Amino acid sequence: MAATCPDRAPFQAASTPVATEAPQALPKIEAVDTYGEYQRREGLPVITGFGVEDLRTVELGTWARRGGKGVFINLDGTGGTNDAYVAEIPPGGQLAPQHQLFEELIYVVDGNGATAVWTDPQHKVTFEWKTGSLFAIPLNAWHEHFNGSGQKPARFFSVTTAPTVMSLFHNLKFVFDTPFSFDDRFSGHDSYFNGEGTLHWDRIMETNFVPNVHDVELYTWKERGAGGKQVRFELAHSTMCAHVSEFPVGTYKKGHRHGPGAHVIVLGGTGYSLLWPEGSSRQRFDWKQGSVVVPPSGWFHQHFNSGATPARYLALRWGSRRYRMSEAFSQGEGKTDVDVKQGGAQIEYEDEDRAIHELFESELRRHDAPCNMRGMVPWCTGPEKG
User: Fold this and answer.
1) Is the pLDDT of residue 332 over 70?
2) Domain segments of the chain: what residues?
């Protein structure tokens, strides 16, 4: 006999009794924080807030499991989607090998050394790195980091997808002990980390190793304003990516907003950033070489070069152009250089609050530096261009 449907409108849920009083003496559901459990197990200090003043000098704790020192960095702007840590390798030493199901991008803060990566222990691919190098660990591949100096420590900054992955599976044994080999991402080729890459349209370089982000070639991105340049990196088939940007002395970039988790590391220059949720007051973060800041998801932010040299930064973030994630993670790709009046995420200079530019000029006067925004910002009082 065919089943019959209740006599109600399509998609209308059946009514259920509504409790008038909360049940008494029932247990509360247990809240599980697998990422928090992982941090407690590692026993490292944790840094929170908007940014870190200097990765080169931030205080570290003993990382017994890995055989070095480290600190977790959980900045507010990640929204709990990704995280960061600083690790230090002792002189002449190495960190314990490991593999894991979360992605990892690494920027070498200071020192030189080498990393071995493998899925087959009989065939390890080893490459050397130095201050300024950028690379990614292929997903779930074994890896081990070595300090190339016997005289001083080596320090690196890592951004990972650990919070999201650990929350999804909520089982640390699975995250760290799964033997599956992602040979579509890494199959042990000797040339995997040789520093070569393929340049694609829209300033995208597909590679697995960047020898030095401090001097890598950049390309003009006129839509972002102020003569800025950029190059983007797709690394090790990750859903995270990276980019390097630079803007001239006496200038600043247009305000824009995007998703969570963009760790902005200052490679050179001095200045400040303004960050604000729409309709609210602005917060200021001053930076220099070694600083890192993460703008919160959906917050407008602007970066200002108030120093005597070009300002360059590296961003480690969500937003791969090849492996797309949901809009919540995508960083607003394709919209960060489009006017908000046209449905984008960027505030054009003529539409910004005039107080933003006035603050910038006052900062330049404090440093006895000229403003080079004439012709871009309507009310700029900087010198005429010759």
Assistant:
1) no
2) 34-177, 197-366
